[in-house]
Amino acid sequence: MGYVAVRGGQEAIEESLKLLEWERVRSERSVDIESIQAAFPDLIDQIMGESSLYAPELAALALKQAQGSPEEAVFLLRAFRSTLERPYVSRTVEPETMAVDRRISAAFKDVPGGQVLGTTRDYTHRLIDFNLREEDGDSLHEARKRLKREWRKKALDEAFATAGSSAASAGCEALWEECAAHALPKVAEYLREEGLLVEHERNDEEPIDVTMEPLAFPAPRSARLQTLARGMTQAVSALGYAAIRGFGPAHPTVAELRHGTVEVAIDHPLGSGDESDAYCVGTMPVTEVESLFEVETEDEAGEKGLGFELGYGMVMGRGETKAIAMSVLDNCLERGDKRFPTQDEEFVLYHVDGIEATGFISHLKLPHYVTFQSKLSSVRKTRDGAGGVERSSTTETE
């Protein structure tokens, strides 16, 4: 945008950029990329998710360059993503095969495989730990050793209890090293087996890639889910909250929330295209949510009843709140009743994109001299006209 309208504008911009760099370097303290990744894993996940690019190191680098601004870091990473080639498209990821390290259900107390709390802040007291001010490398090392000792002891005790001392001494190390992550069945399948879930016709169309094609309405579900997944975390959460509060008839029960890693596989370039020819190129951490919504149903005979519909959310990393809100909005947009703002595709999908929102709001800071002069002239004319009428009326009255 060419908004520079005065002499010396380019020079002022260059000096402003120097000041920005000064703000970054003046403390003479640099944080390395590995430390940023280790200290802010959730923030790194958020930046990658909103950027649609799984690259932890680059996300940390963008956050460092942006001086801690998530929205600027997302802008940087999305801009970099736009320069990359796409030589392959992965096969469909099957969440059922997820290596789960956290899995809870708000709908059922007992589920096959059990509730796996994993890593969560849900049960913390939200009190500031002032001891962290004094934390250094040595204290971190001691904390790691203490936790490892506790886990090793627990694994050893369990081995003694189940296999006896000889097997325990041989197998305690393996038990301790073994990852707790394992595949678990989907909770919603039990409702589906009972016929309690509303079934919809299977859609085998190729998904729309919203990074390559502009949004068009009505949008297919694939485009809606992609847009929500890469939407600004706070925007998706806020609109999901609004839907639950009454700006959309949606109050879900979380059938299952799971976090873990999924394999990403691509077809061999010289293969037949069968699944047997595919090979794994890596894994990716994701959070998946399936929420249940009670709805009215009608069978083929015209008998009315009740059933459940699923709302779906999946995001990169540990964005649990966003994934739940995404499942709420997914169900809202499936209903599509425009009397409710959270069921209006255009309202929701256009306004959750953080880059679009940030860019449009930020552009208001740029010079609008010409347009404002036009507005100012209009306001002055109306004021002058009103003043003339008032003076005329006063004269006649006198």
UniProtKB/TrEMBL annotation:
Pfam families attached to this UniProt entry: PhnI (PF05861)
InterPro entries to which the protein is assigned, alphabetical: PhnI
One GO MF term: lyase activity
Keywords, ordered alphabetically: Lyase
Source organism, top-level taxon: Bacteria
Protein name stated in the entry: Carbon-phosphorus lyase complex subunit PhnI
Organism of this sequence: Raoultibacter timonensis
